[in-house]
Design brief:
2 strands, single chain, RNA-DNA hybrid ribonuclease activity, alpha+beta, 13% strand
Length: 95
């Protein structure tokens, strides 16, 4: 299985790729993630500017308006379908 993980945080990339060994409140979650990418998968982690991933930006902003916990957002949510197509086709930024 090939997985491409694009993050807009170089700090998160450093933590997930074990370049940052600092113990923090998400340490157990990071260890679980690292266990996943150790499997027989081809995983590539790369940096992407937030402007290059509008779906992630949309979901991050939407996350500020919901309670803490597990949430499922359907692609039919207001605006999400548009940003999925936008990222897929790599359209220029709307004005």
């Amino acid at each position: 299985m090939k997985i491409l993980l694009q993050l807009d945080s170089t700090t998160a990339i450093n933590i997930l790729t074990a370049q940052d060994q600092t113990v923090h409140k998400y340490h157990n979650l990071v260890l679980q993630f690292q266990g996943l990418i150790q499997r027989n998968w081809e995983v590539r982690i790369s940096h992407i500017y937030r402007e290059g991933n509008k779906v992630a930006d949309f979901l991050a902003n939407k996350g500020h308006s919901v309670s803490i916990g597990y949430h499922v957002f359907e692609s039919t949510d207001s605006g999400l379908s548009f940003w999925i197509l936008y990222d897929f086709w790599e359209f220029p930024k709307p004005v």
